From TrEMBL:
Residues 5-252 form the ABC transporter domain. One of its GO terms (cellular component) is plasma membrane. InterPro entries: AAA+_ATPase (IPR003593), ABC_AA/LPS_Transport (IPR051120), ABC_transporter-like_ATP-bd (IPR003439), BCA_ABC_TP_C (IPR032823), P-loop_NTPase (IPR027417). It comes from the Bacteria. One of its GO terms (molecular function) is L-valine transmembrane transporter activity. Pfam families: ABC_tran (PF00005), BCA_ABC_TP_C (PF12399). This is Branched-chain amino acid transport system ATP-binding protein. SUPFAM superfamilies: P-loop containing nucleoside triphosphate hydrolases (SSF52540).
Length: 260
């Protein structure tokens, strides 16, 4: 199967700091690739380059065979690459359903204006977005909370809502930045299962996550960064036993998680 996302020799500097240097990897449909590494290793910077927030200093991002290096996030989203952020980007005082509907507005140019002026087709589009949003909420187990104000949801449910919104654009590639951060063990497992289900539907998933048990459980493939460099790559069992990875980052915790 061909790569959905290929990252080639990606690099960026901030002043004198080489935050990411010559990093490359690829992800196929249905794969979950996790990027791990100590604080400041360059994981979020790498995500920001792939998702069009930072223009890479060097290298290329290839999405479905097309060079999309430095393309704006909204255009990338239309081409099938969506992301979530480390910090929740939920509208706390809107309902869960309206938050999910907000995910659709990127795909329909001019739809907000059309809705305001009640242009022909607007009502049908609003109805379609509503139905789509309800289906998404069912997919992440939040359909019964559709009319609840988002601010009153548990943290784990907010994280799931954020993933639902990223799925509104029907992405081929989904970037998840710390989807389990701040979640308890039960919430983390729920998110785990959801991510695995999304991958099974053929989406290529790129994950940054500090929860090593989760990473070892769900990743098909792991890339390890340290000081902006890729120091290892492979399946969870291989990476967790790599001496360089253990001394840079993992200690014995990951090896134990991989054995569990
Ligand atoms: N906009 C920026 N300007 C200057 N330096 C930056 C910027 N963004 C990131 N950095 C620096 O680049 C390096 C990599 O940071 P990054 O946030 O990508 O690491 P990370 O692996 O995501 O860390 P964490 O696990 O703590 O989220 C750090 O030294 C950071 O201080």
């Amino acid at each position: 199967m061909s790569d959905l996302l290929r990252v080639e020799n990606l690099g960026i500097s901030f002043g004198g700091l080489r935050a990411v240097n010559q990093v490359g990897f690829s992800v196929k449909p249905g794969e979950i690739l996790s990027v791990i590494g100590p604080n400041g290793a360059g994981k979020t910077t790498l995500f920001n380059m792939i998702s069009g927030i930072y223009m890479p200093g060097d290298g290329r991002v290839v999405l479905n065979g097309d060079d999309v290096t430095g393309m704006r996030p909204d255009l990338l989203a239309r081409r099938g690459l969506s992301r979530t952020f480390q910090n929740l980007q939920i509208f706390q005082n809107m309902t869960v359903l309206d938050n999910a509907i907000a995910g659709y507005h990127l795909t329909e140019s001019g739809s907000l204006l059309a809705d305001l002026f009640r242009l022909p087709g607007a009502r049908a589009r609003v109805r379609a977005a509503r139905e789509g949003a309800m289906a998404l909420l069912a997919r992440v187990g939040l359909d019964r909370a559709a009319e609840t104000e988002a601010g009153s949801l548990s943290y784990g449910k907010l994280k799931r809502l954020e993933i639902a919104r990223a799925l509104a654009l029907d992405p081929k590639v989904l970037l998840l930045d710390e989807p389990a951060a701040g979640c308890n063990a039960v919430e983390t497992e729920e998110i785990d299962q959801m991510i695995a289900e999304v991958a099974r539907s053929g989406v290529a998933i790129l994950l940054v996550e500090h929860d090593m048990k989760m990473v070892m459980r769900i990743s098909s493939h792991i890339v390890v960064l340290d000081h902006g460099e890729k120091i290892a790559e492979g399946d969870p069992a291989t990476v967790s036993r790599d001496p360089q990875v253990i001394s840079a980052y993992l200690g014995t915790e990951a090896a134990e998680a991989a054995d569990a």
